[in-house]
Amino acid sequence: MHLLLISAFSNQAQTTLVDGDIAFTRYNAGDDSFSFVFLTDVTASTEFFITDEGWDGSAFYGNESTIKFVVNTNIVAGEECHVTTNTLGYTMTSGNSPMSISSVGIFDPSLGNMLGTFGDNLFGYQSSSNIIAGINGDNGISGSPGNAWFASASASTNGSILPSGKTNGSNGFLGLFPNGVNSEVDNARYKASANHNDSKADLLASLMNINNWDFDNSTAYPASSTVFNVSPVLSIEKKGMIKNFELFPNPASDFIEISGLELAENQFEIYNTLGVKVKEGRLLKNKKLSVEGLKAGIYIIRLNNNQNLKFVKK
Predict the structure, then answer these.
(1) Distance (Å, rounded) from C-alpha 183 to C-alpha 179?
(2) Which H or E run includes 237?
(3) How many domains does the chain contain in total?
């Protein structure tokens, strides 16, 4: 039996990403590392790029680093990728390695200083006409309150203007240091205590709010261990029936618990990322569920045929 929730993987053509399909979650100029989260399922053969190039209004300047990502196995929404640029390596929330990455820009990031301590930016894109995410780590423009990006195009390697049609604080594009609001520092990370379990739209709204970020000028932030769970879109009728469940610990090694269950006995099914059911049974309220026999990876548990929760097995 296969779970229809992830049936988007049935067509293995490259996923055409749109604004907000990925969002940056960590920016460290202190140690040249960054993180981003997938807010949509991505199929094998998908290619995209992340660059610290500035945008001139119609193209990238072509004087900095670019990393190419090739997805080799399907990635489910909620996976977070943590990139260390000076080794050109990455880790994923699940512990899997679903992508190959390589340097394709003018400057090799493994030489260091991809994210300059004088400020920088990152863009995620599939082509110059399809830029899907951005984060700016340079200070806002003096004399322009609230402007977190350059006011006009500049070949500076410290920051960038926003591409046309993009809005700061919306759909994956975030300036961390708006003038008069935040002072520029070297390192920033989406708070572990901020929203990680919600719909794509609500998660994006949280990620685009700088009040949900931590900032530090001296110490680079490690990769967060808090797992994102992107809830499926529900109809109004269904949404009104769904209760607020919480699954913990997540990641898990031996067992999981689910709080918020109202029924004394609950039917459950667990699926892997291929949509294959790997376990089913009855879960009693306030009781632990063993996951010890599952392989390391990402799983979806369906409760009573109407609620899906994601967890990571370590």
Answers:
(1) 8
(2) helix 236-239
(3) 2
Question: Could you give phi then psi for residue 210, rounded to 5 degrees?
Answer: -65, -15
CA 108 to each of CA 51, 65, 88, 208: distance values in angstroms, whole numbers, following the listed order? 11, 6, 9, 29
Q: Are residues 268 and 202 in the same domain?
A: no
Confidence label for 212 from pLDDT (cuts 50, 70 and 90): very high
For residue 73, give both structure tokens: 């196995």
In contact, 64 and 52? CB cutoff 8 Å = yes
Interval 236-263 mean pLDDT: 74
Domain boundary among 177, 198, 230: 230
Choose one of 230, 249, 278: the last residue of a domain: 230
**pLDDT tens digit sequence for 84-110:** 999 999 999 989 899 999 999 999 998
Range of the domain at 132: 4-230
Nearest CA-CA partner of 173 in 199, 138, 208: 208
Distance CA 42, CA 29 (A): 28
Give the other-Cβ count within 10 Å of 145's Cβ.
Answer: 11
Tell me: cis bond preceding 178? Omega within 30 of 0 counts: no
Region 115-137 average pLDDT? 89
Please, are residues 314 and 238 in contact by the beta-carbon 8 Å criterion? no
Cα separation, 199 vs 222, in Å, equals 25
Burial tier of 237 (Cβ tally within 10 Å: 0-12, 13-18, 19+): exposed
Distances in whole angstroms, Cα of residue 85 to Cα of each of 51, 194, 220: 11, 26, 14
- The phi-psi region of residue 119 (left if phi > 0; otherwise alpha if psi is between -120 and 50; otherwise beta) is left
Residue 286 has pLDDT above 50, yes or no: yes
